[in-house]
TrEMBL record:
Stretches assigned to the Carboxymuconolactone decarboxylase-like domain: 49-131
InterPro entries according to UniProt: AhpD-like (IPR029032), CMD-like (IPR003779)
UniProt protein name: Carboxymuconolactone decarboxylase family protein
Superkingdom to which the source organism belongs: Bacteria
Family matches, as Gene3D superfamilies: AhpD-like
């Protein structure tokens, strides 16, 4: 990531734990959601198998069982990564954003203070909501009214949990200085 963003380059602050035989099923469920491989994030979560299992279920629901359009979900996740200086999260999601139809110009624009000229109305609302709920926690009434007029109640719930969930992910990653996958760091 560029600018003042955190770039973890060495090993994470905690070592990867040995997975006890009783917890192997948790690791298997996590690997299955990821296509067979555990990420560094997953491996660190296995210090607490119950937390890892709940995390996997929540993030799996947000990524694979949500009604929210994929481009909107990935824009929210990438914007959280930018706002919270989470290089791992950025690298892990930029290709997913591209697959969801987000352009490279839009991905680059997520670093701008006002990226609004690069996005359509729904995307802009998602970014405004992400900024408001990440920076100030409280969402201004006018913004919420605009979101409510554009999105279903289910989409609003899924969007807010996506923003909050990936804020949790970014805080975990940054605090433990988890390096990006394969050590990659870039602005897009």
């Amino acid at each position: 990531m560029s600018g003042t963003h955190h770039e973890a380059t060495g090993p994470a602050r905690l070592p990867f734990p040995e997975v006890a035989p009783d917890d192997a099923a948790v690791a298997e469920r996590m690997a299955a959601r990821r296509g067979g491989e555990l990420s560094a994030l997953d491996r660190l979560l296995l210090h607490s198998p119950p937390v890892a299992d709940g995390w996997n279920e929540l993030l799996g629901a947000l990524r694979h069982r949500s009604s929210l359009a994929a481009d909107l979900r990935e824009l929210a996740i990438l914007r959280v990564a930018v706002l919270n200086n989470a290089a791992f999260e950025w690298v892990a999601h930029k290709d997913a954003a591209r697959r969801a139809g987000v352009t490279d110009a839009q991905i680059d624009a997520l670093y701008e203070q006002d990226p609004s000229t690069h996005f359509d109305a729904r995307q802009n609302l998602v970014l405004e909501l992400t900024d408001a709920s990440t920076w100030g926690i409280e969402v201004p009434e006018l913004l919420f009214d605009q979101v409510r007029a554009e999105f279903s109640e289910r989409e609003i719930v899924e969007l807010m949990v996506t923003i909050g969930g990936y804020a949790m992910v970014s805080r975990f990653l940054v605090a433990l200085q988890v390096p990006p996958p394969e050590g990659e760091v870039g602005s897009s």
